[in-house]
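BACKBONE GEOMETRY TOKENS
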Amino acid sequence: MRRAAVRSATALAVLAGAALLAAGALRLAVRGSLPPLDGSFPLPGLEGPARLERDRLGIAIVTAENRRDAARALGFAHGQDRFFQMDLLRRAAAGELAALIGSAGLPHDRVARAHRLRRVAERALAALPPSDRRLIEAYADGVNAGLATLRVRPWEYLALRVAPEPWRPQDCFLALAAMFLELEDEWGRRDVEREVARRVFPPAVADFLLQTDGRWSAPVLGEAPAPPAVPDASTFDLRSLLRALRAGTGRERSRDPLPDRSPREVRPPDPRAGGAPATAEPLAPAGSNGWLVSGRLTQDGRALLANDMHLGIAIPNTWYRAVLRWKSDDGTEWRLAGVTLPGTPFLVSGSNGRIAWGFTAAEGDYADVVILDPVPEKDPADRGAERPERWLGPDGPHPFDSFEETIAVAHGERVRQTYRSTPWGAAVRSRALGALVAVLWDGEMPDAYDTMLGRLETASSVEEALDIGSRAGLPHLNLLVADAAGHIGWTITGRFPRRIGATGPYPVHSSQAEIGWDGWLPPGERPRLVDPASGLIWSANNRMARGEPWDGRLGPDGAHPVRAWQIRDRLERLADPDERAMLAIQLDDRADLLLDWRPFFLRALDEPSLSDPRHPRRREFFEIVRAWDGRAAIDSPGFRLLRGAFDAAWSAVRAAFNEVVAERFPAARILVTEPAARALVARRPLHLLDPEYDDWDAFLLAAVDRAIAELDRDHPGEPLAHRTWGEVNRFRAVHPIAARIPLLSRWASIGPDPLPGWRFCIRVQSPTAGASDRLAVAPGKEEEALFQMPCGQSEHPDSPFFDTDHPAWLRGTPAPLLPGPPEHRIDLRPTAE
């Protein structure tokens, strides 16, 4: 959702800022929006004096007498350095972007308003215990006070010709809701995809095509499942079916186009009508790596945490570095070091000296799609209705309820949008299924939000932290914890629904007997692991727990497990684990997945194919790929060539099966997974090969030729050895307002810079996404901890802290978690309300 906000903001920035840019006024005014870094400021509500210091990188060092005052001071820092980022987060979640950027935000807002997340945030705030609510209110007061120190409103608002609106306490929950939207499947896309596959293919074929693990499965609980068998010809004959389909329609063969020239891995757009998008491509890097090493395996007995969270990267970076110091009521002194999410008052990941914690996305089946069965056409009230007024329940027809949302538009008229609603949520049209659906999703439930994350800040042991995490109102995340006594542990945060009727990973029908959710499963009914015998816990968005009861509670979803497999492999071979060894693994750019695919292509490139005069560059491809060292390195032509052939082969497999899907569901596509594609290439069943090709060798050779043609298209005739990975995998971060304004884009951007890595390496990297931070820490030894993040602390291009963190992240240079000596100081003093 943060990416959606960025895309929407850039779309209107050209129009909104054009007049100012033409006159040159914006560039002259922006320096006035830089915050003061030194001085003394009153802060109403403070219970005692507080201090905000910054080191040379701009890391915020907050010292206060209690946690509420620390929240005020942190809010002050966020308001000075990151207010526009916070504004985008809350508006993207609430469906209020148009009020900021104008009519270009309307398409987004119309979709987002169906969730009614501002109402959810208000109810979540009202349900908080008074002490927690006061802390949230203190943070909001601090944000507004920090914003007020700017002599000129933030430059983004000058460009958009609007004024910033104050930060409200409920907006903190909207910032959290934006992370729900970033990390979860709020429209039940995966359920719809499975339903489409089940309706089109025999069950054994659907299971085979959508399998997630393959040979790389690496759960930390339970056993790796046996992969589904390749369906035989009596079960499904793709080759014969495609011949018949093409003969019956007179279509030409279904050849995939050449791969996209850039190495971006594009996340499918949010499905505006629910369900699967029109195309199903591999997801963008979003999720994370994280692992733990027990104190039994380290020389000093301290446990280690390593965590790098993968997200889309723009300016500013998602995270804001901070050190928080305060005393609790019993006199205990606390020092927290790590990252915060602007818009919220808590440390998201880091260390308090007793425990260190981090997160990865816990992919799973946490949403349920309800297909709204139409009332039979024989009923006169619904005959021929393009917009039916009723849906069919088990006891007969029911009228849709409705609610209306008024969407403000900057520099334009307000727009009213009416939504039909059901007991399960807003009714939306699934383009994939061609039906009305509603989606049960925890992000729309006020009791899925709370402030339990803040309890982690003062936890002292793994067991205490896992107890907190299992109750925390957060998105579904793998919580990884290490403590100073050497223990390690893992569990999953977020609410687990107690399902009625919706018991599987497929949509259910409104006409069924009772369906829905009956509250939440208790914390004890979720997976949990403490101090495994191996001394290791690893996570990379893969399925962490296998077998019952976890398969039923978590569903079949999970990211490709190759990163988890590689992390486990690297950890098991470590002789002396320490922080630098953790960083070395985080920077590992070995592409084991492509090493696994390389023999398939090399075997197809036999001497007759290499000597074919129609394809003179195959031998060049063969020699470069055969000599490739297995790394997604900047200077590697071998990786670039092999990746191109791999992408072409996987894309062609997807296209063949989706040609069958499109016959029944024209707007639907399914993601035939990499493990399924690999199984086909390895087993070579002729009945599951596109009839365009005589055999699987011909299929693989065609993929090789497409990879070569892709490079020849931009550099005809040049040696393939000159076409390196770093030529296209060039990271660039741009501020969303400046992205489409030539006069500002160079001023408000970082890069481009070539980077190693790939979405299937431990070092995940694309031109616009990757590790939003890297942390390696042993609790209690924070002075030796390492940290990196892209960009810098400030979103203001003229700030001295705009890109100060970036060089270490770019080069992979070890850099400390803790700040250096303070170079700036702001004293915050209590004052009368």
Remarks:
- Confidence is low (pLDDT under 50) at residues 11-16, 18-23, 254-285.
- Residues 637-664 form the longest helix (28 residues).
- The longest strand covers residues 320-327.
